[in-house]
Amino acid sequence: xxxFSPACRALLRPHHQVRFTPHISPVACALxxxxxxxxxxxxxQPVQAVVAVLxxxxxxxxxxxxxxxxxxxxxxxxGADIAFSLQKQAGIKVLTPAESPDPADQTAWCFxxxxxxxxxxxxxxxxxxxANTILFASHPLQVSQSVRKYQDQVNLIGQPPTxxxxxxDKNYVNSMLRAKGxxxxxxxxxxxxHVKDWKSVLDSxxxxxxxxxxxxxxxxxxxxxxxxxxxxxxxESLFSExxxxxxxxxxxxxxxxxxxxPSSKDKESYWSMPIVTxxxxxxxxxxxxxxxxxxxxxxxxxxxxxxxxxxxDIAARECEAVxxxxxxxxxxxxxxxxxxxxxxxxFALFDINMKPNMTGPGRPGRDDQASLTLLAAAGLGxxxxxxxxxxxxxxxxxxxxRHRKPETG
Length: 409
Known about the structure:
Layout: H1 6-12, H2 26-33, E1 49-55, E2 62-63, E3 66-67, H3 76-86, E4 92-95, E5 111-112, H4 115-123, E6 128-131, H5 140-143, H6 145-148, E7 155-157, H7 161-167, H8 170-180, E8 188-192, E9 209-213, E10 223-225, H9 228-239, E11 244-249, E12 255-261, E13 271-272, E14 276-278, E15 298-300, H10 303-308, H11 310-326, E16 332-338, E17 347-353, H12 372-378, H13 384-393, H14 398-403
Parallel strand pairs: 1-4, 1-5, 1-6, 6-7
Antiparallel strand pairs: 2-3, 8-11, 9-10, 9-11, 12-13, 12-14, 12-16, 14-15, 16-17
């Protein structure tokens, strides 16, 4: 009988409304709570792989005048979590830059995402590269001729770099989806520091609004502004980092998030994991998980809640449709929020995240670590290792990623 790891039990225990009994396994309870996902919880086929995890060593380039802020440490924390967990799985060998890295030290588990670092991992025999980093069109995974030689021999867990560069632009992707006419989106405006009279448009804003970077990371620079004066001050602070920023209609209702998984050998199309609802906002904004752990402000939506409110299913279907438009090759996470603090209010899709956080438990001192995607996976009866294995199994070759471009028209 499969069971949750102690860490995943902790994720579900504080908020999840499904009651476990001695006669029903935790997996059965999870499937009972989310029957439409039942086919996803069958035991996965064994995976044979030699895995190398990449971390962010390259600074993202300036794109259309905007640079996405790099994460301090370059995601080495979650990269070490991934490598540590995978090395315990049968049939998987994890390559590391140093022999026998210390589980308590995040710095020796991953290879830098430079051309030299990638080639080092490939030279050691990697069959799978885990791109736990920010990708872009000029990234070595996309343009290096030396790496190209391996494109049919190695799989990559991550997104096509050219797609990431395009869809990390919040204004571009939101405008694209809004133009389709089939997605529920909030209103938004772009302010440009080079436009002398940008302050004049602040008078017509429907306060409260949210000011945020166009190419952001987590909740960095995201703030609810209740007045023209507050917005003006926040915009000026954002202009110190980027010449263009986004102002968005504030959504005052329940916030949730939907992880959409890619197609695989078992699934021909994109599919959404159980929805995770969020609470305990700070200033109207969900705080960055590095400040407040997601286990303290998020939980899986229960079967009863999902069945009672059709807006959850409507939002899940829209998120799957977004994935069909963007064509990602790894999980994406879409943040949604009701327009009003009313259970009858629809959800709007307000943020598409091409690289969901992948922290997880296992290493010393990390038992309370989780991500919103891991919370969703726990709703399926998956622990952290199972989530990583499913991502590994669905990964395409590097050739597929290098040749997948944004569709035009």
